[in-house]
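just leaving the lab so this will be short. what follows is a protein written twice so to speak, once as letters and once as structure tokens for the fold. can you read through it and tell me how you think this chain folds. thanks a lot i owe you, the record is right below.

___
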Amino acid sequence: MDATDAFRRPVSDEAELAGMPPLIIERAREAAESEGSSGYLLTLDAPTYSAVMAQADSEALRAEYYEAWVTRASDCGPHAGQWNNADIIERILALRHESADLLGYPSFAALSLATKMAGSADDVIEFLRGLGRRSKPVAESELARLEKHAGRKLEAWDIAYYSERLKRQLFSFSDEDLRPYFPAPRVLDGAFEIIRELLGIRIERVPAVGLWHADAERFELRDNREQLIGTLLTDLYARPNKRGGAWMDGAYSRSWLPKAEQLPVAYLVCNFNPPTASRPSLLTHGEVVTVFHELGHALHHLLTEIDYPSLSGINGVPWDAVELPSQFLENYAWLEAALPRISAHYETGEPLPAQTLATLKQTRRFQAGLAMVRQLEFGLFDFLMHAEYDPARGGRVDEHLATVREEIAVIEVPTYNRFPNTFSHVFGGGYAAGYYSYKWAEVLAADAYSAFEERGSFDRDTAERYRRCILAAGGSRDTLAAFTEFRGREPSLDPLLRQSGIVA
């Protein structure tokens, strides 16, 4: 966060911002004005970074932003050495290995798996490498197509920019074109409508008294008998000194014990472009998917029926299954019947045009191979780094990353890239030796949603079985057994590969 907040990029000539979304330019102008300056002031918050990489016509600006982003808290880049995390990373890895050794495990990866669905380190490695073998040829063909479209070999800072242009050519719109149709308040209210139809849960806004920021809101969840189930707190917009990314966590867990009666409370945090004086916060469809993802986590925590706080909600759920409800709910952000509920032009109120809606669904598989290998690269790097740690040799962070990139990645990155120094999921969060969980749970989520595809996306019997087996159970039972009860069989890889377009 220190390295991110320290980056400032004044712009005096608006021509340098050619191609950038008006919302980002307006924010940059307001930022400069707030500091008593003329022109524009760009920062390194996630919405601005994403906009520069995907929209800025200036390759020099994209390259500058890319370097600033991938060198944060490292020995390279505009603040080289000032907040270098390298020694901290080594210390974290050493202490994790020591903790595993004290508990009788050969590695931190083995310790991590003791409370997860995956059976062994070999199972995880083969799972990731197996997906890699099937995905890499698709990713290579997608990159070749992108470079043919661009007419040249692409650098790492060119990928998002030319991807947006190829998408516009293929589908006649880009992510930025859709922003006016996805004002954040409409997206959230529409998502609540979808949840009500799917699960019979009403979510209503209530006065937000005593919360931590003016942007924060409070919502109450009630069942079909109007009984209070839990509370959801949201904080959706980026601001200075706020941790980047998007996440959900439990503020309170359900407890229904003598002298300890407590309903669950969850908070949902994002970093979307904040509203301005002239318009509300406008989201890309990718950000809409993020809203559904985090709401899926929130439902998992809030709809629990377990009375013991150590096992209610997301507590006690194996880490490689905790992403199942979040990735499952993402499907409803793409559903034709659901999209009109979450889209309304912020000026006219018109829903997303039918043809645009149909075309949007086709974009779901756009560059799915590139997206797949990117996540596999992160997951395999994380797992091997912890599985193969040797106290005599240290973390070998760069060595592991280079090996994995050689095996999995298709996009070349410059030598100054210091991705591990900002890999907060693993070094500052709970995903150590567990980043593979995103793909593991994605298999479960795609397979779970395939049950609804067979019976109908809002089929009440299927939804009730999903709620009972997955959402309500918390950490009270074996996840594989719960999934098998819901699906009628053990999970299959095929629905994810079909959904992603990796196989026909």
